[in-house]
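Notebook entry, structure prediction.
Reason for the run: the old model in the group folder had no record of what sequence produced it. Starting over properly, with the input documented here first.
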Amino acid sequence: MTDLPLVEVAYRSIRKRLLDGELLPGAVFTESDLAARLGMSRTPVRSAVALLEKEGFVQTLYKRGILVKGIDVKDLYDIFDLLFALYSHALDAIGEFGYELDLAKARGHLDELIAASEDKRYRDYYENGFLFMFTLLEAVRNRYMTDIFRLHKDKLLFFVVTYRLMEGGNRPYTGRRLYEAIYEKLREGKYQEAKEAIFKQKRMMREDMLRHGYST
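New structure, fully documented this time:
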């Protein structure tokens, strides 16, 4: 039995379903359905939905239910550009000022990513990819950079998981080789080469999205 308030239980449960790709953009569900699923009244579910609505995941439709929202494509590209700029800055700072990168932590996320790719677990694969990159930002100990990452990480995770589930694609795990290449460059202290590998990843991601019609 959890000691968490019911609102928090409902919030975490719905959010998990969103990030796991169980509730895809365009789907409509009701408070009653969620309350029955969670074995609680509609009141905490309504409060949980309000929190998720503030975060931009869902939209309440008058007398129709709750709509799962997609992410605006322009916002998506802008967020990716911002994060890749932060990764680039972090690598420059690590190389110039000698910040200590937690390679063991990065390796742990890489191992989890590899295992998830073999088991075809979308969320774990992409989440560990984001957390692998987060180790770069942690190294430079800039709270504003890490806060920006945390603010946007789950929204991007929601997009990439639902994107793969809805669009498919024959290369869902090609990023694994790039992450492995990035790790090796980091381990060898070749930070500029690591940057090149990261921006290769960005180009591949953008090209894949454009092929599926995600243009700004």
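Summary: The chain has a mean pLDDT of 92.
The old model has been moved to the deprecated folder.
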